[in-house]
## 1
Amino acid sequence: MRITLAQIDSGSDVDRNLDLIAEYSAKAAREGSDLIVFPEYSTYEKSRVDRSFADMAEPLDGPVATRLQATAARDGIAVVAGLLERSGERGGSGERERAFNTLVAIGADGSRLASYRKIHLFDCQGFRESDYIEAAPEPVPVTFSSGGMTFGLMTCYDLRFPELARVLADSGAEVLLVCSSWVPGTAKTEQWATLAKARAIENGVYVAAVSQTPPVSIGYSMLIDPLGTVVHGLGTGPGTGTLDISPDAVQAARDQFPTWRHHRLP
């Protein structure tokens, strides 16, 4: 199947972000792509998570998700994108306090294939995602199938937790979609690449690591094959990369290094 990595520069203008997603999706469809992957916070993003993230959140049948579904159906392409999902939590003033940082996977017919609420929140480097984002109530791994392959969903900071990648692989994932807005900082670009390669090598899977652009994030989206080789990488600006992937490559890597069979730890 054919997959497109879409590295974009989302901002606080939701309509502009949705138009950009539609533009990139149409381009990917023209290139014969079966699936396009956008970053975390695709539909609303700022340099710091604040109360506006909770205020902008909607249910999964709200206008933002509906437009994403319409884009997928219009172009006949599966879409994975990050949005803000409304939670039921309100403060004493009645204002919404937190939202879920959610990835949605939408099929080429516009139906919702899966949704994943971020498990691990980024409370690092003086950054407090948990002040306005609510972690998934239960750490449930999420996979979906499209184009004859199985995909596992991960969001940004999740990449630092190898257990989640292993559970997704054990659940049948052949490709890990790591949708991110990787916060810049010392050694962060090197860590992004190293961790993404490690998750591929450990599990014999493709890793499609897609990030927002600077200045909010670092860019450098990449597709890594099941042996840990970067097949395609983007720089720091907005752009796409469209590539073919195959379950045969996954099986070949796992035949060479059957770590799933050799694994002995609980």
## 2
Amino acid sequence: MTVLDSPLQEVPVYSVTEISHNLKQMVERAYGRVRVRGEISGLKRHTSGHTYFALKDTDAVIDAVSWRGSLSGNPVALEEGLEIIATGRLTTYPGRSKYQMVVEQFEPTGQGALLKLLEERKARLAAEGLFDPVRKKPLPPYPQKIGIVTSPTGAVLQDILHRLEDRYPCHVLVWPVLVQGQGAADQIAAAINGFNKLPNPPDLLIVARGGGSLEDLWAFNEEVVVRAAASSQIPLISAVGHETDTTLIDYASDRRAPTPTAAAEMAVPVLMDLWSFLQDRQQRLTTIMVQDLAMRQTTLKVASRGLPDLTRLVEDKMQRLDEWAERLPTLLRHYIQTLDHQLTSALTQKFRHSARRYFDGTHQQFELVASRLTHASYQRILDRGFCWTTTADGTWPSPSIMGMARFRLWRLPPPL
């Protein structure tokens, strides 16, 4: 009996890597260049700069990725819910066994989609109060320094500089930025924030761009630009596009100019008009001062007629002064005599009082000494009954006799 091999043994065996590689080649050969219409969903910007999202319609979803730098030529940025036509290639991602689209370019499906997105964003930002008129700041009447955010190569910058030079020459700082395409919105917002962070910032900002389509002006509709304009501490004029063009930065700025040239005219006065105005005010002020001075002189003359003769007013005073001048020596002498008498009387009274106190004290001392002498006198001893012996002639004995004999005071007996 012959045993036939199983039919499964004729099917080749592939590794996972081989299958993934073959599928990748098949998909890329079949869809090497495709354009897909769909709505952006699940938008995610990675820190590496790559952007991941999905394109969906009512029945299906395709994962998509846009590598960093590949969308630099696109007029608008990728936004959640935006319907676009994406151009790129289909490929597979073996790590997750799925296919995806690498988007190299994209375009909105029409202005209707952009306008819808614009209105939704406008309503959301307005609800936050970013367009509130209360937030708007007045423009400085005479700015000394103006900051301009625009492209350095366009005619817009030259138009603004020429108009400023003609009207009101002042110091100008230019922050060059892209005004359309990928990255333009970030540069514009960074310029506005950068001017506000300068240690000596400008007095006024102008954000300007020439006219263009809705896609060309889309950078000025980006949320990052609108928020930067609304948070600017420096008064800001938006001058984007022509008079009929309107972007969201116009609502967030402090003033909107229909054109960049009009922004320069709005920012500064006309120097010659200002000079004429000052000259007119100076002439009017001089005329008013002359008229006022003449009126005051007339008033003074009229008032002076009612004044009395000054000589007659002082005649009596002058005569009274002469009389007092004659009486002054006599009065002064009398006054001095009075003071001398008062001083002498005061000194005499003081001297008497002092002398009395001195003599009273001396008398008391004298009586004290006399009392002591009295108590120490031999007479007090004799009064107690003693006797005093002397020589026959009543004198004291001589020293020799005193030396040879003792003399005593003898106490006499009391009388019978």
